[in-house]
Amino acid sequence: MGQAALSAGVGLYATCRVTETEGEGYAFRSGNHEQNATRKSLLSLAKRVDAYREGEDYQAIQALAAEDYFAPSKYILASAFGEKLPPSLRIEWESEIPSSSGLGSGGAAFTALVAAVSPLIPDAPTMEQRAAWAHRGDIIAHGGVASALDTQTSLFGGVIRYTGRGLAERIPYAPGLSILIGDTGAVAATSAVNGQVREWLAAKPESRMRYFETIGALGRAALPLMERGEWEELGRLFTLNQLVLEKIGVSCPEIEALVEAALGAGAYGAKLSGSGGGGIVIALVSEETKAAVAEAMRAAGGTAYTPEVGVPGVCVV
Hints:
CATH class of the largest domain: Alpha Beta
CATH topology of the largest domain: Ribosomal Protein S5, domain 2
Helix content: 40-55%
Strand content: 15-25%
Shape: globular
Order of helices and strands: EEEEHHHEHHHEEEHHHHEEHEE
Strand order of the largest sheet: 4-3-5-2-1-12
C-alpha cells in the first residue's frame, strides 16, 4: 500500500491512498465520485487520449474529461505502468483543497497519485518521470493543454519558478512573505476557460501574444523583489498582472470585487490565480494589514484563507 500526502503550495493538502487488492479491476473513489474500471479499459483510454493529443483534438479531450471524472487518473496509471499495470488496485483520495478554484486541487491529487503508485512500479521513476506523469492528469482535466505549474508546485513544495522548460526550480525569498487567499465562490472549469483563451489568441495571434509576453516579463521582474523583500514593489506587479489578465478576458466581476476590496484595505497588490473565470484571488499583505484585508474580502462576498508559505512538497507516509 502506498499513501501520499502533499501540499498544493499554500499549506492545503490532498492525500491519495493506493492499495493492491485481490482479483481484477480498479476501484476509484474521491468525495462523492466512485467508479470501477478494468485494466483493459485503462489501456484503451490511454491510446484514445494519445491519438486525440497527436491530432490536437481538444474538444474530444474536453468531452472525455466531462463524461469521466477519473479519466485523468486513468491516463496517469496507464502512462506510468504501461503493460505492467497491476491486475487490481483500490485508489482513494481525500482533499481539503477547494476544487475549480485556482488552487491546483487537481494537480495536487495527480501528484499524490504518482507518489503513491511509484513504489509499485518495477523501475524506480526519476523526478522527471514523476513530473511528466502527474502533468498528464492536468492535461486531460484542462482540456488538452495545461501548464505543469500546479503539479510541480505540489511535487517540490516551497516557492518555485516554473518556465515551461524542464523541472521547476526553488527560488529564494526574504522573510516576511505573506499572502491571503480570497475565494470568490464562483466556479469555472479550467478546460472551458483555456478554450476561450485559445480562441481569443488565435483571432489575432501577433498582437495578442504580447500580453502573454508581458506576463512573463512581470514574473521575471518579481524574482529579485522577492529575494530582497521589496513587498510594495512586488505588490504593484501583482496588480499589473491582474490588469493584463483582465485584458485577456479571464477575470470576472467577482474576482475584481475581491481585488478592489483587498487593495482598499491596504494590500500591497492582488490578482486572480489559476485559469480565472472565477476561483480565487491572491493578495500580497503585511502582518499589519492581513486582518483588515481578510475582513474586506469577506465583506465583498468572498471566503478568506490565511495560508502557510514555503511548506514541503509531496511525501509518502
